[in-house]
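hi! just following up on the protien thing from before. the input was this:
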Amino acid sequence: MNSVAPFQLSLFDEVQRPSRDQMLAQAESLAVALSRELSVPVRLSVTDNRSTMVSFRRNNSSLRLRVHHMFLDAPERVVRAIADYAGRGRRGSGSVLDDYIRGRQPLIRVERNDKEADLNPVGRYFDLQAIFDRMNEKYFQGGIQAEIGWGRMPARRRRKSIRLGVYDHQTREIRVHPALDRPDVPVFFVEFIVFHEMLHQLFPSPSGSSRRVHHPRGFRDREKAFPQYAAAIRWEKQNLRTLLRR
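and the predicted 3d structure came back as:
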């Protein structure tokens, strides 16, 4: 086995579990195990996220890995699945991680923190609740159970990407980016974003950063059935630069 450079470790202050010293020791053990498994340095961050349990960024020389604190005492097979999923790109290992996450649901924080405002669906130009109810009745037979509202306007800065909507599986909340609450945004595009986020309740996805895994084939096929799918995709491409500036 190749020698492994020392890992780097960061621990979010918000993580409040058994004791900080114990968690640091567990995190160090996990990082070392993953480094040995993959023969690369692992830069590990431990989070208390509510939605994304495992995320990563890898290159030829190292792996940046963020995991929920539930994985600190994970058994060997789960540690190996993390290595396969994040380090080797073996997507089949996602099912092992999903099973483990489902068994550890009580450890996932569900309450809001002070930075998360209550959902407000009524904007200046669009009422998201009315759109949600219309989409729910028309395309889901009223079967989607979720709250919806506008997200907070982020600090103004130069962006390379923008998330126009997000669905939280734990709280069943849909948040839509306030950049869409403008008179020049067509109704059909806001409806498409809401429809897209509603689909996530029907197609729970493995935790991680892959768009293909996050949007499995069934999801994408159902999304394309939206009557104005092509028009919505075209409008987004034509107006992306404008949205990024808002």
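Confidence is low (pLDDT under 50) at residues 1-17, 207-213.
Residues 71 and 79 are 8 Å apart (CA to CA).
cheers
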